[in-house]
Description:
Layout: H1 2-9, H2 11-20, H3 25-45, H4 54-72, H5 74-78, H6 85-96, H7 112-126, H8 129-136, H9 144-151, H10 164-188, H11 193-204, H12 222-235, H13 239-246, H14 251-255, H15 257-279, H16 286-300, H17 315-327, H18 340-358, E1 367-368, E2 371-372, H19 375-401, H20 406-417, H21 438-452, H22 456-459, H23 464-467
Antiparallel strand pairs: 1-2
Helix pairs in contact: 1-3, 2-3, 2-7, 4-6, 4-9, 6-7, 6-21, 7-11, 8-10, 10-11, 10-12, 10-13, 11-12, 12-16, 15-16, 15-17, 18-19, 19-20, 19-21, 20-21
Amino acid sequence: MLWLFLGGFLALPLLFSLIIQDGLSFLYLTEMLALFAMSIVTLFLCKKPATLTIREAYLIVTLGWVTFSLLGALPFLISRHIPSFTDAFFETVSGFTTTGASILKDIEALPKSLLLWRNMTQWVGGMAVIALAVAVIPFLGIGGMQLFKAEVPGPIKDKLSPRISETAKILWGVYLLFTFAEVALLMVGGLSLFDALCTTFGTLATGGFTPTNKSIAAYSSPFIHYIVTLFMFLAGTNFSLHFWALRGKVRYYFYNPEFRFYCLVTLIASLLIMIARLAHGEVFTEEFFRSTLFQTVSILTTTGFVTHDYETWPFFTQIILIALMFIGGCTSSTGGGIKNIRVLVSLKFIGTELKKLFQPHGVFPLWVGKDCLPEGVVLNILSFIALYILIFFIGVMAMTALGLDMDTAVGSVAATLGNVGPGIGTVGPMENYAHLPLLGKLILSFLMIVGRLEIFTVLVLFTRQYWR
């Protein structure tokens, strides 16, 4: 059924190719028909399961992302615009995992229909195609909660409806509404429908792909920069809060401790970067304010759009941006990273441990808002953060072993594991990943999938207990 969806999503680039007559319409049509045939044959050959276990859900989710990346790479490969399989796979993994890391040296050289497909991979991956499948395909209604738990990012899931399929429909409804809203506003700002669509797909997915070589810097309009900043911030927010806000309960934003922490991190990081830039001799202007806010929100939400080469800023600002790559967006958002709720819980846990030094026999429950977190949830969060950092260090060691300098190794691993896109060093905001060795690209592709599926979903497949 997921392959059937992938074939359906090819309809938009097919239509666009027919309109502009770029010669790729037969390619899209052929792949669509092949995917439909594969899906139908498999449905007839495979018996519908009576139940769907959590083990099967983990396998479906992981294989879903891998096969999507393999099949989604075919338009790049067959058209010969990305002739290398490794490069095409890397680019497509980067799309579906909403990372935004690219191997393309000249993005604008690709046909527009192919650029549209490139950005659509991010939009599809943004709210998770598994959730879409659960929402509209009764066949996957069995075990829907298992799929949802395995796919939706974050340690705390918000069930907006008693039926998990209804929850998925609600989330996708909000996602679609924001998509139409941003496309309309960007067109009001002067962008063409094509540029507005591609930019919106990259924004709401917190992906970072654009149809230009200069990212958002290609658009000089301050209005466009502010609109993209707003929707990046919204995309990095828990989508459940957007649903309640649309129902008239805007106060839920400010009742939510994670959202308050998210706003605080954005404010503090922006102020620190501004102070560092001012201390370095820059002058405060509207463009200075706009570029700082844009880049802070872009990196924190793991979008990866660029309006300014932040590697020309003071080194202290780059340390802050790397820290933001680790924090990421909110739970149940399209953002990557560790997630704000996990960082908040870990800080509160440190606070309770410090209290125990003075009152060793005291009992200090860990409260997040009005919720007292069970010990199991806290341990899960702490183990996730520890594993995240461990994987980061292993990734850095692997990349340095391949000959990369430390800046590039740290930047590439932090940017791919956190699903950010641009890093520092030779994979900075004005560079790309094309020069990396083949094995390095495969390692980073694995890190993108691990980061997008929140580590445990993938790593559990490599345990002996899973296969018993």
